[in-house]
Amino acid sequence: MLDNSTYDEKKLLFLISEDSNEAFHIIYDKYKNTIYRVAIKSLKSPLLAQEIVQDVFLKVWFERKNLVKIHSFENWLFIVARNHLLNQMKKIAKEWKGLHNYQMEVSHKEETPVNNLDREFYKELYKSALATLTDHQRNVYELVKIENLSYSQVADNLHVSPLTVKKHMSRALFQIRKVLKESGSGFFF
Question: Which of the chain's termini has less CB crowding within 10 Å, N or C?
């Protein structure tokens, strides 16, 4: 068992590179709140801020074999956090722009039987895309996108790791996009 009172970052990074969960949790506990505060200040969303923290520490875990080569872990960690934060803000801006364009388009369209048919067509296409998902993918997708749960909350509910949730969500989104693209409808998700 590691002694949390004497914090030796180089030793902890070495242990993490050797797959030590305990050392990883010590590093996580040291930096999670700082990253969360920076993320929530920029994003104004506890859910998105928590996702940033999760993504940053997933990156730490994936890069664990290379951590001992990093000169300043704290600097590296905050660069990773900054990059995830910027990517999230770009994604939000893109979604807002898409939503705004859609709302402008809808507000300019009259309610006609053809528009109602289009809406029904896309609704059915979306349902058929969801039907192609595995049970695990569909369950994770619905909990995240419909129930608005974070990856951590979904992981707790399903008794799996957040990494497993992220994997299922990524595969679900890939499959939905693939089905929509193959439909030739011009509708992209």
Answer: N
CA angle 89, 93, 96 (to 5 degrees): 135
Q: How far apart are CA 88 and CA 169, in angstroms?
A: 16
Q: Is the pLDDT of residue 5 over 50?
A: no
- CATH 1.10.10.10 domain span(s) along the chain: 110-189
Outline where 44-161 has alpha helix (H). Answer: 46-62, 73-108, 113-131, 135-141, 151-158
Mean predicted confidence (pLDDT) in 148-165: 88
Query: Span 110-189: which CATH code?
Result: 1.10.10.10
pLDDT for 99 equals 64
Query: CA-CA-CA-CA torsion for 19, 153, 165, 123, nearest 10 degrees?
Result: -170
**May I ask the CATH class of domain 1-108?**
mainly alpha
Instruction: Calculate the alpha carbon distances from 168 to 29, 102, 127, 152, 158 in Å.
Output: 26, 28, 18, 13, 12
Residue 27 has which token pair? 């590093």
